[in-house]
Write a structure and sequence with these properties.
The protein is an all-alpha fold and 116 residues long. It is 54% helix and 0% strand.
Length: 116
């Protein structure tokens, strides 16, 4: 736990509590490249980063990489991803389904037709 106190001139104390890297790491479930799991994985890492001391962010990212396995891990190893934002963007672009406007319009139309 870390406690930060505002400057002596200030009347307000800013108290911030962080959890350890080890505890934070427990929030991140393994990711094996399944499209259905990618958004949950990303959300878990984002949450972990929010509740830990920002100065330990680099350490957590190294641990996060160990939670990724299979072909996804190999693919990431061949890229020069410098930080979590780049890794997150790569995961979103690679493992989430992209739906076009035509797809969405067709889906709405077919849903409307099925109700009639």
């Amino acid at each position: 736990m870390e406690i930060e106190v505002a400057s002596p001139d200030s009347n307000i104390a800013n108290i911030t509590e962080y959890i350890s890297v080890g505890e934070t790491f427990k929030l991140v479930a393994p990711f094996k490249g399944e499209k259905r799991d990618v958004l949950a994985f990303i959300a878990n890492v984002d949450t972990a980063l929010e509740v830990m001391d920002p100065k330990n962010k680099g350490t957590l990212i190294k641990f996060v990489l160990t939670r990724i396995s299979g072909e996804t891990r190999t693919t990431i190893a061949h890229r020069n991803l410098e930080n979590w934002e780049e890794l997150k963007e790569f995961l979103k672009n690679t493992y989430t389904e992209k739906r076009t406007l035509d797809y969405q319009a067709n889906k709405m139309y077919s849903t409307k037709q099925n109700k009639a």
